[in-house]
Design a protein that fits this description.
By secondary structure, this protein is mainly α. Helices cover 71% and strands 0% of the residues.
């Protein structure tokens, strides 16, 4: 479980810094508007949502990592690790989807990092614990049936 948290945290932080330092929305100027796309209200709203999701995911992962340092038994941190895997993965999928909507068809070009992020984050859907089992195990643990 620890490796999943580290991998998800690396993805979130890598995506965050890539977006901040080489942001497509800062320089892309389609012919249909004056200025760059970051001046469009829809793009601004999506960027705000992406940033909020990244902040949420990062704080959840850091909280889970702190739990590993303070809890002495795996059972104490099981719910938090399961939930963080599922929540951060789903938020990552939503972040990448929003970014791809902003960038458009160019996001699918093999030379663009977004196509790689798309594949990488979606791979989390196929790594245990699966979402349904994570939620089932969390429910069992709070109803004392695990």
């Amino acid at each position: 479980m620890k490796i999943i948290i580290v991998l998800l945290l690396n993805f979130v932080l890598k995506n965050y810094f890539q977006r901040k330092n080489g942001a497509h929305y800062r320089y892309y100027r389609p012919n249909s508007i004056t200025g760059t796309i970051d001046s469009l209200p829809t793009v601004q709203q999506n960027l705000g949502k992406m940033e909020s999701l990244l902040l949420s995911a990062r704080h959840f992962l850091w909280s889970t990592a702190r739990g590993y340092q303070s809890y002495t038994e795996d059972a104490q941190i099981w719910n938090e690790t399961s939930a963080s895997k599922v929540v951060v993965m789903n938020q990552g999928i939503e972040i990448v989807d929003l970014a791809m909507r902003i960038v458009g068809a160019k996001s699918l070009e093999m030379s663009r990092p977004l196509q790689r992020y798309y594949r990488d984050i979606r791979a989390g859907l196929h790594n245990p614990p699966m979402e349904d089992m994570a939620y089932t195990n969390i429910a069992k643990s709070i109803t004392n049936k695990l």
